[in-house]
Amino acid sequence: MQSAEPLLQVTGLKVHFPIHAGLLGRQAGTVKAVDGVDFQVHAGETLGLVGESGCGKSTTGLAVLRMHALTDGQVRFNGEDISSPDRASLKRLRRTMQMIYQDPFGSLNPRMRVLDIVGEPLRVHRLTRGRAAYRKRVMELLERVGLKAEMAERYPHEFSGGQRQRIGIARALAADPKLLICDEPVSALDVSIQAQVINLLEDLQKELGLTYLFIAHDLAVVRHLCQRIVVMYLGRIVEVADRESLYRNPSHPYTRALLAAIPIADPDPEVQARFDPSLHGEVPSPINPPPGCPFHPRCPHAAPVCQQQRPRTMELAPGHTVACHLHDPEQAEAMARPQ
Ligand SMILES: Nc1ncnc2c1ncn2[C@@H]1O[C@H](COP(=O)(O)OP(=O)(O)O)[C@@H](O)[C@H]1O
Ligand SMILES: [Mg+2]
Fold it and tell me: What backbone phi and psi angles, to 5 degrees, belong to 24?
C-alpha cells in the first residue's frame, strides 16, 4: 500500500543554465536542461528515470538534491517544501537524500582513505562520538555493502570499479538516508559486475526500507528493478507507467524506440510489433529545442501538427500517461492526414 503523500513530489520543475559568451560574458542563450517536469516517488518504491544521454536526468536528480537552483517549480520531500530551503534545512536534506554517482572512478577522492571517504557524512553530520565509534561504524558500513572491514585503510586506486561503487554506496548509506538517487550506478561497470551491484541495491532496499530514484539511459536495467518508470526526452517527460504497462503497452514512439534498442527476452511477435525501429540521430540541443513535440524530428509518426503544437499529457489508463498527439483524440484527424 502506498501512503497518501509521496515521499518526493516534483511539480513543474525547470532547470535552465545560462550560456555566457565573449569577453564580457554576455548571456548568449539558455540550456533548458529540465523544462517542466512532474513526477512522484512513493516511500519504498523504485522509480526509474530513463532517457538517452543529454535528456536532463542527472540535472533532475541534482535539482531534487538541491545541488542546482530551481529555475521554476516545486520540490516537496517528506511533506516539506524544499524548493528554497535555508541552510539548516539544506543540511538536514543532505542527510536524508543521497546520490550514488555514475563514475566510480571520478567520484571518490583519490587522496583519502576509504575510512575517511565513507566516514565523511558521519563527520559532517556529527553522527558518531569518538574515533573508535567512528571506525566501527565505517567498518559496519563496508561489511554491509560486501567489502571487508580492513579495506578501510586503503585508497580508492587499490579497488576495482565494482568495489569502488560499493564504497560509494557505503558512503551514501552512512547518514541513514531515506531516498537514494542512483545516477546510472552500473553504466560504467563491466556487465558481469552490474548484476552484483544491482542485487546489492535491492538487498539494501529491503533491509533498510530505502526509496530509490534510479536513473538509466536504457530500459534494460530498470525493467528488472523499477515498479514505475518515467521516460524523459529533451528536458520533458514523454511517458509514465508502471513496469507492466510500459513493457506491454509502450505508447510514446520514443519509449518504443528505446525498447527496440534493448535485447528482449520476450519473443511474443505481437509485443515485438509494438516496438518502433531503433533510434536514428541524436538528441537535439536543449539550447534550441525543436518546436512542437521535441521528438518530432526523429519520430516515424510525425505529422505537421507535431512540428507546431506541444502535445498534451493524456492519461491512457490509471497511472499511465503519455505526451503524444497520436494518443490525443482531438488530434486524431490531424494525425491521420497523409504527410
Ligand atoms: N551545469 C551545466 N551548465 C550548462 N549546461 C548543462 C549543465 N549541466 C548539464 N547541462 C546540459 O543540460 C543537458 C542535460 O544534461 P544532463 O542532465 O547531464 O543529462 P543526462 O543526465 O540525461 O545525460 C545537456 O545538454 C547538458 O549539456
Ligand atoms: Mg547523466
Answer: -85, -5
Specify the long-range contacts of residues 63-68, CB closer than 8 Å, at least 24 apart: 63/13, 63/15, 63/34, 64/8, 64/10, 64/97, 64/181, 64/213, 65/93, 65/94, 65/97, 65/99, 65/181, 66/90, 66/93, 68/15
Q: Give the residue, by CA position, lying nearest to ligand 1 atom 11.
A: 33
Q: pLDDT per residue over 39-83, tens digit each?
A: 999 999 999 999 999 999 999 999 999 999 999 999 999 999 999
Instruction: Write down the mean pLDDT value for the chain.
Output: 92
pLDDT of residue 310: 95
Question: How many domains in the chain?
Answer: 1
% of residues, the chain, pLDDT over 70: 94
How far apart, in whole angstroms, are the C-alpha atoms of residue 219 and residue 285? 22
CA 77 to chain CA mean position, Å? 16
Q: Is residue 2 part of a domain?
A: no
| 1: pLDDT strictly greater than 60 | no
**Position in ligand 1 atom list of the atom nearest CA 215:** 21
Q: Nearest residue CA, atom 13 of ligand 1?
A: 33
CATH number of domain containing 295: 3.40.50.300
Q: Look up residue 175 and give its amino acid.
A: A
C-alpha cell at 29: 542563450
Q: 216 CA to middle of ligand 2, Å? A: 8
Structural domain contains residue 1: no
pLDDT at position 304 is 94
- DSSP symbol at 142: H
Domain annotation covers residue 332 = yes
pLDDT of residue 162 exceeding 90: yes
The domain in which residue 78 lies consists of 8-336
> pTM higher than 0.85, yes or no?
yes
Instruction: Determine, yes or no, domain membership for 300.
Output: yes
Residue 112 burial class via C-beta count within 10 angstroms: exposed 0-12, middle 13-18, buried 19 and up: middle
- What spacing in Å lies between the alpha carbon of 54 and ligand 2's midpoint? 7
